[in-house]
Amino acid sequence: MMNGAQYVESLKKLKPTIFYRGKRLDDPYGHRALAPHVRTAAATYDLAVGGQHDEIMTATSNLDGAKISRFTHLFWSVDDLIRKIAMLRLIGRETGTCFQRCVGLDAINALWSVTYDVDKAKGTEYHPRFRKFLARLQREDLMSAGAMTDPKGDRSLAPWQQADPDLYVHIVDRRPDGIVIRGAKTHITGAANSHEIFVMPTLGLPPEGADYAVACAVPIDAPGLTLVFGRQSNDERKEEDGTIDCGTEWGVVGGESTLIFEDVFVPTERVFMDGEGEFAGALVDRFSAWHRANYGGCKGGNADVLLGATALLAEIHGTIKNSIVRDKLTEIVHLVETNFAGAIGSSALGKRLPAGNWLVDPLLANTVKQNVTRFVYQVGRLTHDIAGGLLSTLPSDADFQSSEVGGLLEKYFAGKQGFSTEDKRKLCRYIEGMTSVSTLVEALHGAGSPQAQRIVMLRQADLPEKTRQAKKVIGLGKGK
Ligand code: SF4
From ligand 1's centre to the CA of 121, what distance in Å? Predict the structure, then answer.
């Protein structure tokens, strides 16, 4: 396994094409826009080495028995599913933000199970091919991103009906030694600092959409692949690193990119689905179920830091003993632990798939994510309520450093004795960053928008069975 420094060094050997604010980045991993996200992903490596968190951060490969990072592991039992949630909470607490690497982990598990199913049904050879690829990923401890969401153009039209057929990634050429893909994927978490990108279809596809049913692995620096790193609220604060206004060294949310594939050649050994659209829906559903359950872990860890920061700020304000403030803090605990319980519950009720890995309970997993679309906003509101208007009006670090007004600001922004104004400002900037627009929108739409969960929830709830039960319990249909 690599440590964080080795991971960063391994990235520097790559030559990806990454644009940010109109310019191609010569040194993307050292650039202030990406560096906080690289640091956060590096934490997933550092926490896995050194032995302190072995039980949670590492696993034994079911492929060759080697000790590996849990981020490259197949979920081989209920215990693995539960330990994954524990891992996400741990890293969420250590970094206070999205650490990006779980998307690739869930993609690995989705591809492992679906390639098995496709081979069984159609006599293809995707599964042994994927197994070989995964063995390398585990051996080299690579970071992979999962690229599922296409730009989608006119959403009332199917992929092949779009005015521009490239609005969904599709196969434009099939050669004896591989395929050529074109299109784009967007909102892709951690892609810019991953070694490999798993391209996956975004929806189930009928036979006429076969060219859009493509799953494959593309190296981050593949010829023809261009990344455009997205903006986030307050992202210019990253330019102020070394100042308090920067907020956090870990970055806010996951560092998302748009990926543009301009006739990218993918060799056969990296192709895991080529036209089997009837299996694309299962791939999306399984990937989504695993990823939606995650949010009860990672967001719980993030909220642990937010809760601590908010309580500290209340102490500086001198309000921590106020029963109303304590009740609001209790409400944060209630929201976070409710959702953590859902994530653990969806793991505990997991079921074994034919390929051998275990899938979380989809109803509970989707309910976890549905809760996140509300709870993260509610937690943010409570932190704003306790922190006060200072969150949005606090003068800049430069003003506090000014020889003319700095002393006055120090005097008038002082809190309870024994606490520095600097710490007070740091807490405000952290809470501001972790509850601002990018964070909230990520909670709403990451791993699928709220309605996507509700569709699965209603399907999984099995209304016909419940109406039968109601009839039985209430004794309907016995009268004349
Ligand atoms: Fe992982 Fe959570 Fe970030 Fe998704 S949002 S990649 S589950 S840390």
Answer: 33
